[in-house]
Amino acid sequence: MEVSSESGPPTHGRCIVKRRMEAVERSLRMSGCELGLLSRPDGSANFLQGATSVLAGVYGPAEIKVSKEMHDKATVEVMVRPKVGLPAIQEKSQEQLIRETCESVINGTLHPRTSITIVLQIINDDGSLLSCCLNAACMALIDAGIPMRGLFCAVTCALPVEDLLIVDPNLKEQKESRAVLTIAMESMEKKVLTVSSRGTYSAEEFQQCVGAAWVSASDIFQFYKDSVKRKFSKS
Amino acid sequence: MAEGFKLVEPLEFHRKFLRENCRPDGRELNEFRTTTVNVGSITTADGSALVKIGNCTVVCGIKAEFATPPIDAPNKGYIVPNVELTPLCSPRFRPGPPGEEAQVASQFIADVIENSQIILKEDLCIESGKLAWVLYCDLICLDYGGNLLDTCVCALVAALRNTRLPSVKINEETGLAEVKLSTRNALKIHKQPVSTSFSIFDDKYILVDPTNDEEILATGLMTIVIDEDGTLCTIKKSGGSALSAQELQDCISRAITRHKEVQNLLDEVQVSVTTEK
Questions:
Q1: Mind telling me how many Å the CA of A190 is from chain B's nearest CA?
Q2: Topology of domain B28-276, CATH
């Protein structure tokens, strides 16, 4: 998916969206997604965005501890394991974000008093990590066959300087940016499900990021479709 | 009668009000509860504030201590925020180590400080590589009445504005720090972020400043933090009902007007404290 851009400085031939959205040229780094590579979980996915790689496993609907049981719907649990060390407070906040995003698309009422556990193992971080985690979680849920109202996908946008917006930045671009936003869209109405951000930005820039995420979302949903197709055509 | 109806059918109870474009406590959809600010109430802290938004009460105390600056950034100090949700404030919380909600709130406050640059960590350095201030910002919730994050951010800003640090000099001969408690200086506040929370009800009504009941019944929550220039510092929306770009824009506009209200309130409090002395 290499597309050279005419506007702005070249950033690995990936998406650079001009501030006024005149030239929307895009191509995400999504290089691969392998489904069902783990034998124990009910569903698993390895999602790659450039060098960023996240392995997700989904267990469920499964038995649950009585203390966590909810009588009207399934309990969704998310665990994020960092590449090195133990999960800290930052992972905790990511876990909550991912859990609530997943909860809003999972049809939990179909499996009351059960648990759906999503484990995300970060394999490598080269920018856009949160969006990769969310995408991996969604793919793993699809692979596990969990009933869902729709799908979701996440896009990270970086704002390095005025008039420039990079979609799906790598770690270097992300570090050099004054603001980084991760936006998750749902597939039914293409509305904004989740927003998480670092740094400061104007309301106008925020709207442009939403616009860029909206445009990229169709690519990602197409990519989801292709990945699932590939899995079933193999066997 | 109404009490019983609320207990048995909480969703329908709220719906009945929202259909008429008002809320059970008589507010309009985009109206905040009364905000009360009291600064300097804790005399043992270097800065403190108690903020109430409706029933939600948060007290913030700022304690300054010395530390060696981090090796990778010798000209910086530390800011350590911590949100405590005690069993006192709501039956949802149990004693023991902080639960997920408290940890997430602490991380949120840390992100707000980092993103908005309320105070620069460079300002907390006393002597590069040798001595710096650590500001422990303890936020303790006394009454969980919904909308914790807005109350916390407001209490934090009010307490930081109230903070007076003693002047410190390093004695060149002995190399020890000499603290002059009699002369105290205010911190340099660069930005004043204000947070505005929204709850989404039934996927269509957007309520500003949700109460505890409204938060529990909400289909989605969102928090926007904005500074005085109208720059967005943080938007936190984790899952829940999806919003369109237009709805997000309306929320941002509401956050801008809310900033002015809080800013005026904090300025007023500041004036009343200085004239008292």
A1: 8
A2: Ribosomal Protein S5; domain 2 (3.30.230)
Per-residue pLDDT, averaged over B21-46, amounts to 93
What's the domain range around A225? 26-232
* Reported pTM: 0.91
Asked whether the beta carbons of residue B100 and residue A90 sit closer than 8 angstroms, the reply is no
- Distance between alpha carbon B241 and the CA centroid of its chain, in Å? 24
Least CA distance to A94: which residue of chain B? B104
B265 touches A: beta carbon within 8 Å? no
Q: What is the CATH number of the domain that holds A125?
A: 3.30.230.70
> Domain count of chain A?
1
Q: Is residue A179 part of a domain?
A: yes
Q: Chain B partners of A101 at a C-beta cutoff of 8 Å?
A: 238-239
pLDDT in tens, A54-89: 999 999 899 999 999 999 999 999 999 999 999 998
SS3 at position B102 = helix
Asked whether residue A20 is domain-assigned, the answer is no
In angstroms, the separation between the Cα of residue A41 and the nearest Cα of chain B is: 24
Question: Kind and range of the H or E element at A231?
Answer: helix A203-234
Residue A84 maps to a domain: yes
Q: Is residue A18, in this structure, part of any structural domain at all?
A: no
Q: What is the ipTM of this complex?
A: 0.90
Contacts of B244 in chain A (CB under 8 A): 189, 191-192
- pLDDT for residue A221: 93
Helix/strand/coil (H, E, C) string of A122-167? EEECCCCHHHHHHHHHHHHHHHHCCCECCCEEEEEEEECCCCEEEE
The tokens for A35 are: 């489904």
A198 touches chain B (CB under 8 A): yes
**Is residue A87 less than 8 Å (CB to CB) from chain B?**
no
Count Cα neighbours of B68 within 13 Å in the Cβ-side half-sphere: 6
B107 contacts in chain A (CB < 8 Å): 89-90, 92-93
Domain ranges of chain B: 28-276
Q: 């399934």: which residue's tokens?
A: A74
